[in-house]
Amino acid sequence: MDTPTPYRYEQLAELIVGMIDNGALAPGVRLPSVRTVSEQHRISISTALQAYRLLEDRGILVARPQSGFYVAAARRGALALPSASRPRAKASTVSISGAVAALLEHASNAGLVPLGCAVPDAELLQSKRLDMALARAARQHGTRYNIYCAPQGEPRLRREIARRAMGIGHALSPDDVLVTSGCTEALTLALSAVAKRGDAIAIESPTYFGFLHTIEMLGLKAFELPTDPTRGVDVDALARLLDMEPVAACLLSSNFNNPLGCAMAETDKRSLLALLARHDVPLIEDDVYGDVYFGRERPKPFIALDGGANTIYCSSFSKSLAPGYRVGWIVAGAYAQRVMERKLAFSLCGAVLPQVALAAFLESGAYDTHLRTIRRLFEENLARMTRTIETSFPAGTKVSRPAGGFALWLELPRRFDSRMLFDEALEHGICFAPGDVFSASRRFRNCLRLSAGHAWNDRIDDGVRRLGQLAQIQLGR
Amino acid sequence: MDTPTPYRYEQLAELIVGMIDNGALAPGVRLPSVRTVSEQHRISISTALQAYRLLEDRGILVARPQSGFYVAAARRGALALPSASRPRAKASTVSISGAVAALLEHASNAGLVPLGCAVPDAELLQSKRLDMALARAARQHGTRYNIYCAPQGEPRLRREIARRAMGIGHALSPDDVLVTSGCTEALTLALSAVAKRGDAIAIESPTYFGFLHTIEMLGLKAFELPTDPTRGVDVDALARLLDMEPVAACLLSSNFNNPLGCAMAETDKRSLLALLARHDVPLIEDDVYGDVYFGRERPKPFIALDGGANTIYCSSFSKSLAPGYRVGWIVAGAYAQRVMERKLAFSLCGAVLPQVALAAFLESGAYDTHLRTIRRLFEENLARMTRTIETSFPAGTKVSRPAGGFALWLELPRRFDSRMLFDEALEHGICFAPGDVFSASRRFRNCLRLSAGHAWNDRIDDGVRRLGQLAQIQLGR
User: Fold this and answer.
1) pLDDT band for position A3 (50/70/90)?
2) Of A49, A335, A396, B449, which residue is most buried, by most CB within 10 angstroms?
3) Would you identify the CATH topology of the domain B92-102+125-366?
4) A127, B147: Cβ pair inside 8 Å?
């Protein structure tokens, strides 16, 4: 259900990408005409054209009027990848709250070009069917649901969440699921269930600044782990850390790292799980981008690999469907009781009608169709943004190649100062996320994250371009 | 706006109650006929009858067919009040979570007679207009609101909350208000903003078990203050405590104490504020029952008396309108920045559409009409429950006389064990709240709380009666 048969035009597009990757189609080469390819593959002309257009959107092909489609000269991947991080193996006291609040304030300013917050745009999400389900539930059953629901959440929604988990290889019962106010509450409950003030949490580097903020507010410390921009966390480095230091938990955005957009290979995930199990350290995974994958299959979350023995799984519908509904969930396994007690004590229970609406939407089967659309849109957005970066950012700029999600991570030369760019960009009406908020020790000052969660348009394209020019100017000084 | 002119039948009813209270009308005395009273007071016969029926509903008058209305023999107040509490002045480590989870699980079991949870019944709340506002917002503006709103919450709702605060004597700007997931989240944010693990919080005794649970989960301790069932906290005892011990904050359900249903007199509130200000100890007030008052005027919250200088105000719509919407708010004054940072870190922001629906409902002016209805219903429920207690509980049972809210606090003879009754009652299909969950040191084992939040019916009446009989049997053993 979660790995649907791709459409024929997607199959063709993938075939072409494979031929470019293995060198069978070199940059600049003209592709067979749409008519030819439709005959070769026994597909309609419109299907063949759809495949070419898709690759054009992704910046892989270029259309030349009256001539045909060509392999793009500088296609995605022409820029080098950011370096793997090498943080010190020392616990950091986190002090990020001021920077996070300032960033979020600017990021929610509709007057700025929205490259700051990793929130999908409502126009792009098209939540009409879900909103109608909410309207219906409120109109027909408002009184029935004007209650405190059980702290675990609405049973219909928990059933649907459990059903979807089956689709990604993890057998869950609805009773294993506790509904939360977004993934943020799920992570707060998880962290406070496994760690107490002063404990240290092992995290990726770079990592999502929201993790750092929650860690700070709970009085915890952070160990930053060396992280590769495509392979993720360095398991050997984690092994060395665990031999030396007490670690209360490991917290990862498993699929896909925010800001890098990478997911660990399944074998690496298994090694990491085995390592943590040996040291009896629980893994908290944030899988909030997991449904926004660009490959053929959804990467398995950690919980599907260890059966939840040592894993606390957190996710939400905020990145793929309904940021405004604030519905997330947690599967806490051995920690379920502790998590439920904290849910009761910290917020009692969640609003019922949004949960009922989400359940109805999921029951209708519309979510998978929706996800297929969203995934294509985000992948196209990232390709377009990468192209604009290639043509406008300083030479030597490195950029991530996300396997999912909708953010890019840029690394500029060492002397580049993304804080300075941040202030300048605000004056030019552009918001982005400066690199240092993604690190407990405020590393990555020469890096930045650009979000591509909005429907692509000239304003956004121009914003990225101007950002590149400002960076050029800063480095030319 | 919040102190509307009472209806004429309410004025007449109040006059009669006054005459009974000062002895002008003795128990058993027959009242003037409806016709006579309508002529004397220049009101319609139906208005006069409405006044008599109201007092009949409250157990103050008794109707005798073909004869007229009489002052009830054992009217409300015939039972003595519970004793004032005298807890030890020693900080308690709280360990209540198991008991709270068990109680809430039983309380949400629709198969049991619902005397356990202080949640108003959806049938009684009649939230139709609000639900329609939600349906409209979802249908018309779903896309617009499918966003992360600012952590402070939807501006329209904050404006309405500020406007209502004006009505109870406290000038607020919308910017002073932060919307939360119910009052529980507001209290969690407040406590974590003013106290850190190991600190002690001064609380009423008895107090709402949810406070104790949050205190426990944040690793805090509790000082229980002597509390009178009508006058509230003993300010002198608090003064002695503050002279001796470090206290991080004082946490009160100001209007009205849960479970006692009392509010402190305004002069006592002012003394308490002055005392706390002298010791630089912040007051956290939970005003969640404040709109459900039975007197002529809404009691002023603490924040209206000190202008918010040293007060963190928490409330919600859960007790008067929409438990299923999970919308509360906090006004944190000097602690606003710390509270906002914690909101961001713990749950980011709230669901938007329920906030928009509440704003539209409040803007329509329908809330005050709704509150008038609710107040009368809850007051009638409490009067009926008190009457049933009088006729069925053991001699010597003492019962609270709430000035607001919808719960009764019962004190039985010392040797009575409400835990034992709790288990027996469950077997008889009845749920209530045993006394010991209202105390950090697990006092009040001979007490219990009955909730009257449901539309009164024979099942509830019978449940209270059987509870009384079970208590009689226990004490007769």
Assistant:
1) very low
2) B449
3) Aspartate Aminotransferase; domain 2 (3.40.640)
4) no
Question: What SS3 class is residue A41?
Answer: helix
Sign of CA dihedral B430, B435, B440, B443: negative
Give the CATH H-level superfamily of domain A95-123+372-476. Answer: Aspartate Aminotransferase, domain 1 (3.90.1150.10)
Closest partner residue to A97 (CB to CB) among B150, B318, B341 is: B341
CB pair distance less than 8 Å for B188 and A346: yes
- Tens-digit pLDDT profile for residues A138-160: 999 999 999 998 889 999 999 99
Are B378 and B290 a contacting pair, CB within 8 Å?
A: no
* Residues from chain A contacting residue B151 (CB–CB below 8 Å): 104
> Which string of DSSP letters, residue by residue, matches A251-282?
EEE-SS-TTT-----HHHHHHHHHHHHHTT--
What confidence tens digit (pLDDT) does each residue in B421-465 have? Answer: 999 999 999 999 999 999 999 999 999 999 999 999 999 999 999
For the stretch B208-233, pLDDT in tens is 999 999 999 999 999 999 999 999 99
A·B CB contacts under 8 A: 217
Closest CA to B208 of B54, B318, B307: B318
Instruction: Please state whether beta strands A200-205 and A232-233 pair in parallel, antiparallel, or not at all (unpaired).
Output: unpaired
CATH of domain A126-367: 3.40.640.10
B194: its two tokens: 């003013």
Q: What is the mean pLDDT of residues B281-286?
A: 98
Q: A324: which strand partners?
A: none
A329, A186 Cβ separation under 8 angstroms = yes
Cα-flanking dihedrals φ and ψ of residue A370, to 5°?
Answer: -60, -45
Annotated domain spans of chain A: 8-71, 95-123+372-476, 126-367
Do the Cβ atoms of B148 and A192 come within 8 Å? no
